[in-house]
């Protein structure tokens, strides 16, 4: 009888435990320009349902057989779409009901994510921000002709460089030897590089993300395209299974498999990160993927890849003067962020966070400045030699040019957009011969 009573008590305890089998352990928020994201960290995979209410817009989420251990008071919501997160009376025992009070109606996107990387089971709630209706966004008709962005683009315009800080938000990227996240390194370096570019006449930087939130890889190239970019530069920090590898590298798009083992690991890591950061490919429209599929086979891709290779080589040469190089030549990998045919794209690995010494360097302000100056010098050097038509750089001519190996009169005339006869006359030259070290005067337009 005593054994039977103990068995009943044990079974009762087990039944009570199974009634609240799951636990909501933490709640995190990730604001971004196009949505407000809430992430619920749970012990087990969530069983949930949700619905929206009007007349005081609210989103109600019911977690079945779940208890709350997270501190709601510590969740600070600063958003123009969400006001407050609170607990409400549950419809039945064992259910946890959470209510998100909204400032206006929205169509939520809610999906679970399995345990992966540094995170356990999660439920992700995205609250998209409303777009301005097309009718409301159209300006009133005017009889006076206006200069559009398209017409202004050809009038001494700036060269647009999109800087993509890798990872962000739910996606920490590689995790360093001391537990630091790659996403923080990439954002800081990207902001420093953007500041230097924007302080240079004729150049303009566009950041794909400006703070700690996640953007899908296809969305990153879309941002660069909308900005009419002349270059997309994605900033990352590498990692490996051991702490030995070190050094910076530059990666380009490969239409085949990556040509190095580390490149193959990086490809898999990027796919993993896309799931980790919010399954952007699953949730977002697939129209962009169709566009990429079309452009990847476009003949212009060959030209962009040649341009990317030249820029990458220049950046590596400059980086080699301030840090160790992991690869002295550009490497290749099939990365989605680089799959654009309308502008050159490349990915800069600033170092290995899995290497303790290099991780420490990447968090050193002086070292970061050196990296930024080197990357900038490589970019500036390329565009001075190969300025896009209609840019300020294309119309700029230096006062003098010192002849180096490989220079010719025809090449210099083409570079500075003058005739060979004008160049010869300006320098009182009787022959077409040039001498290395010779200083030529360049006539100004």
CATH architecture title of the largest domain:
3-Layer(aba) Sandwich
Strand content: 15-25%
Class by SSE composition = alpha/beta
Please work out how many helical segments DSSP would assign: 14
- Give a quick account of the main beta sheet: strands, pairing sense, barrel closure: 6 strands, mixed
CATH class of the largest domain: Alpha Beta
- CA-atom Rg in angstroms: 28 Å
Q: How does the overall form come out from the CA principal axes?
A: elongated
Task: Give the strand line-up of the largest sheet.
Answer: 11-10-12-15-13-14
Describe what this molecule looks like in 3D.
The protein folds into three domains: 19-128, Immunoglobulin-like; 155-385, Zn-dependent exopeptidases (Aminopeptidase); 397-441, LysM domain (Membrane-bound Lytic Murein Transglycosylase D, Chain A, Roll), CATH 3.10.350.10. Helix content is 33%, strand content 23%. It has 14 helices and 17 strands. It has helices at residues 2-19, 134-137, 149-152, 182-198, 217-226, 261-277, 280-283, 287-295, 300-319, 356-362, 365-385, 392-395, 409-415, 420-426, and strands at 22-31, 35-42, 48-53, 58-63, 66-68, 82-88, 96-102, 109-113, 121-128, 159-165, 203-207, 231-238, 249-253, 331-333, 345-352, 400-402, 439-441. The relative contact order is 0.11. Residues 4-10, 12-18, 131-153 and 278-299 have low confidence and may be disordered.
């Amino acid at each position: 009888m005593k054994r039977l009573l103990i068995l009943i008590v044990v079974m009762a305890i087990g039944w009570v435990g199974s009634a609240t089998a799951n636990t909501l352990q933490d709640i995190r928020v990730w604001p971004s320009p196009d949505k407000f994201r809430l992430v619920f960290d749970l012990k087990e995979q969530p069983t949930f349902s949700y619905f929206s209410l009007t007349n005081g817009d609210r989103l109600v989420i019911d977690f079945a057989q779940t208890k709350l251990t997270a501190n709601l008071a510590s969740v600070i919501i600063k958003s123009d779409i969400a006001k407050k997160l609170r607990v409400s009376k549950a419809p039945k025992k064992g259910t946890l009901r959470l209510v998100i009070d909204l400032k206006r109606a929205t169509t939520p996107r809610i999906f679970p994510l399995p345990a992966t990387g540094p995170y356990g089971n999660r439920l992700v709630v995205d609250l998209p921000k409303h777009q301005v209706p097309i009718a409301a966004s159209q300006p009133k008709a005017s009889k006076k002709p206006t200069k559009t962005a398209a017409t202004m683009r050809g009038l001494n315009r700036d060269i647009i460089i999109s800087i993509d800080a890798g990872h962000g938000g739910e996606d920490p990227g590689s995790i360093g030897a001391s537990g630091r996240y790659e996403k923080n390194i990439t954002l800081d370096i990207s902001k420093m590089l953007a500041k230097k570019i924007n302080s240079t006449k004729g150049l303009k930087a566009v950041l794909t993300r400006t703070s700690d939130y996640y953007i899908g890889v296809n969305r990153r190239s879309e941002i660069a395209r909308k900005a009419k970019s002349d270059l997309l530069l994605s900033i990352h920090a590498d990692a490996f299974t051991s702490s030995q590898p070190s050094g910076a590298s530059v990666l380009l798009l490969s239409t085949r498999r990556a040509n190095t083992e580390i490149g193959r690991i990086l490809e898999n890591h990027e796919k993993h990160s896309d799931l980790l950061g919010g399954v952007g490919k699953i949730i977002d429209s697939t129209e962009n993927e169709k566009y990429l599929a079309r452009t990847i086979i476009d003949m212009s891709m060959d030209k962009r890849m040649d341009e990317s290779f030249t820029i990458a080589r220049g950046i590596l040469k400059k980086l080699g003067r301030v840090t160790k190089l992991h690869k002295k030549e550009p490497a290749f990998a099939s990365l989605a962020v680089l799959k654009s045919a309308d502008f050159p794209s490349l990915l800069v690995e600033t170092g290995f966070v899995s290497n303790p010494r290099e991780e420490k360097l990447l968090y050193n302000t002086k070292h970061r400045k050196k990296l930024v100056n080197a990357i900038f010098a490589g970019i500036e050097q390329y565009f001075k030699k190969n300025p896009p038509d209609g840019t300020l750089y294309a119309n700029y001519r230096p006062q003098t040019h010192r002849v180096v190996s490989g220079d010719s009169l025809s090449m210099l005339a083409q570079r500075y957009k003058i005739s060979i006869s004008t160049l010869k006359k300006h320098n009182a030259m009787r022959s077409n011969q040039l001498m290395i070290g010779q200083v030529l005067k360049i006539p100004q337009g």
